[in-house]
């Protein structure tokens, strides 16, 4: 009977911790999921490429600041407790996300718009830097002995579910609004909705108890008086911090963001896949892949954390380029047989004072793929012949069908499996190698440097590498951005294989 009560109690802990963490990840990912739209709202529109890169840089800024959040909130968590600390991070994240949805566009307030977005993005990063370590530590300290990998893996699913829910909310918002409404104001809805979800999570979390291990340490007077000094000022513990970063978290971070963010950006900006199709394909792959976090978390309880994580990194190193080449080929219409007799061109004049016409050309291919090119051109006075400088905008999109659609889901799903291998066991791995009194601080920093710095910089660095290769005339420029996650994962694999051992645990620093 006691075992049943214990299981019931841990499920309550998992539910309360996971819901709040899921919402924080949702808040954090909305920005990345809408990065293409945001680039047109908060940055100058005269150079779309520069605007998109600026958006990615702002997105990355939220990751870069996460280690500072880990230090600040990790210290609080080791001083006053896990529960109250990640209550604060939840409210900070929710407020910042809501306010991003309220900021006027660049056309309305100029450079103040990207400045305010950057400030709020930094606050999001600080909040997330304190949230994950608290939630993972809280769950691990409630978990039965020998089952930490299994129970903490449920927390690992929240990041992926957060991205999944952000995609679902965006797709539903687009479904209920016209394209013009979504572009005008509908993109703000996912940001504004977060305040309601944060409120619900707050009501649930406020009734949680402190973790038993922290309460025991506090009752015995064994909590830390200076978590930062004991975590990083002690050479023995610092060695474990560095090994956790360079032997596990660094590789985990780049694998995670390659599979869930670079893949999405790649589909939309390199393959030119229709945005809704790309979101749906990623969402389906995430839905099927997410249960494997728990599978590999539980496996790590039986065989150890090390080789489960390192297997994911090694597979990524060996297969990323073939996978992304296959993705590119699926949408490469230059190699497909065109069905000329089905091609159509439709010209639609505008209504109202904004005089322009939209020319939509649809091309069909033998394998079911079709493309749409939408061009907007000004209507010259008295319907005179239009010239090149009358061109307003152009949009090219690829639409997949049948087996190609399924193949692309499978290729994204494979990358999600790599993520579950490296990410499923890592919370238990990080919690177990540090003593209770400095656990929140010590585990949070390597995790958020690995994810915030190495992982968070991936979209911007990889996009820069690919853009630079394209400019230099490299025919495979679309694969060059992958060198960043491949090299980082390879280095992390070597360090982890050589220096991480199964019984690696930092001693209690009394």
From TrEMBL:
It comes from the Bacteria. It is found in: Cell membrane. InterPro entries: MFS_dom, MFS_sugar_transport-like, MFS_trans_sf, Sugar_transporter_CS. The chain crosses the membrane at residues 12-38, 50-73, 85-106, 112-130, 151-173, 185-204, 236-257, 277-295, 307-324, 408-433, 445-467, 482-500. Its main location: membrane. Keywords: Cell membrane, Membrane, Transmembrane, Transmembrane helix, Transport. Residues 13-508 form the Major facilitator superfamily (MFS) profile domain. It is a multi-pass membrane protein. SUPFAM superfamilies: MFS general substrate transporter. This is MFS transporter. It comes from Sphingobacterium daejeonense.
């Amino acid at each position: 009977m006691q075992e049943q009560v214990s299981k019931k109690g841990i499920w309550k802990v998992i539910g309360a911790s996971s819901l709040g963490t899921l919402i924080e990840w949702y808040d954090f990912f909305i920005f990345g999921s809408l990065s293409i739209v945001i680039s047109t709202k908060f940055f100058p529109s005269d150079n779309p490429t520069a605007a998109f890169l600026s958006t990615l840089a702002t997105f990355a800024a939220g990751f870069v600041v996460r280690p500072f959040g880990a230090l600040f909130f990790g210290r609080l968590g080791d001083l006053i407790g896990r529960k109250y600390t990640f209550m604060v991070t939840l409210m900070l994240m929710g407020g910042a996300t809501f306010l991003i949805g309220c900021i006027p566009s660049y056309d309305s307030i100029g450079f103040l718009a990207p400045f305010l977005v950057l400030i709020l993005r930094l606050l999001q990063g600080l909040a997330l830097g304190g949230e994950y370590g608290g939630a993972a530590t809280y769950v691990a300290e409630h978990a039965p002995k020998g089952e930490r990998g299994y129970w903490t893996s449920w927390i690992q699913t929240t990041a992926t579910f957060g991205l999944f829910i952000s995609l679902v909310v965006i797709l539903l918002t687009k479904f209920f609004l016209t394209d013009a409404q979504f572009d005008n104001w509908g993109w703000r809805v996912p940001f504004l909705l977060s305040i309601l979800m944060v409120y619900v999570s707050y009501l649930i979390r406020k009734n949680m108890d402190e973790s038993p291990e922290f309460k025991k340490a506090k009752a015995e007077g064994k909590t830390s008086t200076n978590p930062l000094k004991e975590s990083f000022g002690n050479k023995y513990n610092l060695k474990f911090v560095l090994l956790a970063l360079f032997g596990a978290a660094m590789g985990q971070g780049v694998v995670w963001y390659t599979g869930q963010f670079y893949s999405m950006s790649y589909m939309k900006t390199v393959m030119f896949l229709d945005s809704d199709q790309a979101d749906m394909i990623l969402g389906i792959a995430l839905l099927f892949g997410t249960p494997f976090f728990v599978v590999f978390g539980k496996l790590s309880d039986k065989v150890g954390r090390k080789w489960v994580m390192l297997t994911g990194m090694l597979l990524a190193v060996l297969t990323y380029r073939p996978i992304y080449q296959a993705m590119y080929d699926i949408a490469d219409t230059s190699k497909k047989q065109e069905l000329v007799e089905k091609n159509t061109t439709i010209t639609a004049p505008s209504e109202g004072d904004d005089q322009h016409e939209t020319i939509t050309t649809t091309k069909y291919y033998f394998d079911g793929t079709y493309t749409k090119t939408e061009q907007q051109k000004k209507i010259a006075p008295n319907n005179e012949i239009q010239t090149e400088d009358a061109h307003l905008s152009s949009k090219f999109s690829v639409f997949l069908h049948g087996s190609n659609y399924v193949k692309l889901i499978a290729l994204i799903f494979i990358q999600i499996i790599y993520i579950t291998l490296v990410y499923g066991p890592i919370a238990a791995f990080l919690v177990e190698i540090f003593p209770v009194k400095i656990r929140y601080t010590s585990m949070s920093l390597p995790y958020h440097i690995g994810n915030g710095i190495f992982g968070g910089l991936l979209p911007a660095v990889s996009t820069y590498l690919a853009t630079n290769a394209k400019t230099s005339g490299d025919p495979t420029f679309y694969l060059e951005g992958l060198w960043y996650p491949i090299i980082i994962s390879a280095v992390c694999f070597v360090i982890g294989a050589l220096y991480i051992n199964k019984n690696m645990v930092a001693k209690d620093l009394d």
